[in-house]
Design a protein that fits this description.
Helix content is about 15%, strand content about 25%. The N terminus is likely disordered. It is of the alpha+beta class. The chain has a seven-stranded mixed barrel. Strands 5-11-10-9 form a four-stranded antiparallel sheet, with helices on one face. A three-stranded antiparallel sheet has the order 4-3-17, with no helix packed on it. It has one domain.
């Protein structure tokens, strides 16, 4: 691959033109009420698919910004991947500070060592970390004790507190007082659109998941990681990029950011692209040591590789300008896909519109 690698992005759909002269208030209302994108997307369902790769790994991250759990198969849901024989889903849990705000590896790199997994006992969970005795607990159910928290900087989200014992365990391991674990008990997204999301033609509110940053699914190509690694001294791994679906056998690196729709194995397991994933400093945390490096790698090099000159939608091109893009954020395309099971080695098909 040449050094001056150009990453080409598929032309996005044009953002619907608003009527000239409509006031700012009416424009805001229209934006919020008119994403009847679902109806448009239903009509755009692809009929021709191209085999583009296969599933290399499936990873579920039960706690936001903590360690992922590799599984051989998982269930597709609107809120993200779910364990095959357990109710736990991707980013169902989140660690918050005393003000109810999300904390992440960027400020607490040691979170990368915390693992939450299903227990063999029904509705029980096991949390573990190096140097700590594991702790077993059940889902909180007391809805009268709902709390409010903030995932990023958007509106408040309702959640249930997992209790003092779990909180003390986390505080001991992280070494910070006031931390608690919250559970997203509501089975639909509570998130609200951020301004930039209106510039993404296929992005819908239902794509936003539970405690996810943007969307309930993230697909990354192994070939994309290898292309980046060829340019840096300390190699990154999929753990840095935190995909829920890692794919390989792609014909070229970064091909995944071009896809409009993705079909996995069966006919109903269809995901739609929301936005190419532009990455934050969390991806620089060393997953082996839990240290945030000072050189900004591998994100620094990834940013230098990103070219958006060929991106036809200028608003989206401006949004992605100078960003380090690795992977594609997606949401569930049709309700019929809810409950479909996908497995490692399942073929991946893509379609462009």
């Amino acid at each position: 691959m040449p050094q001056d690698l150009q990453i080409y992005y598929v032309t996005a759909f044009a953002v619907t033109t608003l009527v000239v002269g409509v006031g700012a208030w009416l424009t805001s209302i229209k934006k919020k009420s008119s994403p009847s994108k679902s109806e448009k997307l239903e009509k755009q369902r692809p009929e021709k698919w191209c085999l583009v790769g296969k599933i290399a790994k499936l990873i579920i991250y039960p706690i936001k910004s903590c360690q992922g759990v590799i599984v051989q198969e998982a269930v597709i849901t609107t809120l993200g991947l779910k364990f095959r024989n357990h109710n736990i889903k991707d980013r169902d849990f989140m660690i918050v500070d005393k003000n109810g705000r999300s904390v992440t590896m960027v400020t607490h790199p040691g979170m990368s060592f915390i693992t939450l997994e299903p227990s063999k006992e029904k509705d029980h969970l096991i949390m573990s970390a190096p140097g700590m005795d594991s702790i077993t607990f059940t889902y909180p159910t007391k809805k009268l004790e709902e709390k409010f928290c903030r995932v990023k900087h958007d509106t408040k989200v309702k959640a249930l507190d997992c209790g003092d014992e779990v909180a003390e365990w986390i505080q001991t391991f992280i070494g910070k007082e006031g931390l608690r674990l919250y559970y997203h008990h509501i089975q639909q997204t509570q998130r609200t659109f951020e301004p930039y999301m209106y510039e993404c033609p296929q992005f819908e509110q239902s794509d936003m998941g539970a405690f996810h940053n943007e969307t309930s699914y993230l697909m990354v190509g192994q070939e994309s990681i290898e292309e980046l690694n060829a340019r840096i001294e300390k190699k990154s791994s999929w753990k840095n990029w935190r995909p829920t679906i890692l794919i390989d056998n792609m014909s070229e690196p970064f091909a995944e950011v071009n896809w409009s729709f993705v079909k996995i194995g069966s006919e109903n397991a269809i995901l739609k692209a929301s936005v190419p994933c532009y990455r934050c400093p969390l991806t620089t945390v060393d997953q082996e040591t839990g240290v945030l490096p000072k050189d900004g790698e591998p994100l620094k090099t990834l940013r230098s590789m990103n070219k958006t000159d060929a991106f036809a939608d200028r608003k989206l091109a401006e949004l992605l300008k100078n960003k380090g893009i690795m992977g594609l954020r997606l949401g569930l395309y049709l309700p019929a896909g809810e409950g479909a099971t996908i497995k490692v080695n399942d073929p991946i098909y893509a379609a462009l519109l």
